Sequence to fold (414 residues):
Amino acid sequence: MDIVILGAGYGGMSCVTRLSRKFRRKKDVRIHLVNRHTYHLLETRLHERAVRESEVTIPLSRFLAKRKNVTFHLGEVTHIALEERYVELDFGKSETTPATPRRIRYDYLVIALGSKTNFYQIPGLEEHAFQLKELDDSERIREHTERMFAIASTESNPEKRREYLRFVIGGGGLTGVELATEMAERFDSLCEQYHIEESEPEILLIELGEKILPSLDGKQIRRSVEALQAMGIRILTNTRVVGMREENGHLEILREPGAPIPTRSMIWTGGIRISDLLRKSGAETGPQGRVIVNEFLQVQGYSEVFAIGDNALAINPENAKAVPTAAQFALQQGYLTADNVKRFIEGRDLKRYRPKVLGEVVSLGRHLAVGWASLPAGMQLRFLGFLGILFKRAISERHLFLLWKERQNWTGHW
Fold:
């Protein structure tokens, strides 16, 4: 019997680690983990890596060591055949090695492929803007930022100098705000390094809606805005990015309302979309391309297939709304799906998915955060300050602790 998990993100890793423990004594059950990288990416920390040296990856070998019933497949998923029950991988190619496709057949499938950046077909945006979804993206942003400061330090034309030192971030959600504040803090040292006045660099945060961080309450939003403005970050709400263009060596962001913004640095964090692989597989999809699942996270029409994380259009039964695409929900879904796969195999009733909202924390640089945490009896603890940073890191460490706990439970039987 073969169980295949596609993706080693938050949902995929929580699922595979629990599955390997639950089936540790079943020699006839083979678990396959498919991922296009050899590491687990801590995507919620990518904004840190985009600005400074920060560890945001963990080798998969550290999680999978001694898990004899797990086989890791390095490759890109290129096709999902739900009717025929197999997935097809592309192992990539080099100058000496052609692309090598391979099929993996499954009895049970867990789709946890994550998401991509949604550029909403805005003309020129995908061609000219940076994104922040992968490790390589964060590296490119960090290198580009320092390059802009280095060029500006010897640029005598004031207009061009301002272009080099103007950084625009599209999207006033969690990622955009966290990146903006990290960059603002980093600029102090870059200004000193390249002998640039601290007043020269400019960060613009563009948000389509009327407010940034819409998941927070009004008071927290106001305090966040005050914190950003104190860092010199300019916030443009009710502003739509309608295009990017390059003319005569100049790059401009087109917006409504307002005049074009000349800049050499646009980072887009304005939304996500799901790979067309899922739609082409025959699965029924909804907004953003997310797969429609039932209360057990099973794909409609395919009871042996589960979708989790960003890929799943799961519905919260308490408010009938779609569960947000956030790491905390992907983790919960991964663990639940591991339990349900085992229950399905054993012919037992499955557990219904009921999301638990742990809270929302937004870092405003390295030493400040705003947000709230769930307390018993429906109460909430709200905070702004260093306590928030400790809580945010605790959430991240809790994720790793749970994965290591699953691993410890496994190794304890050897």
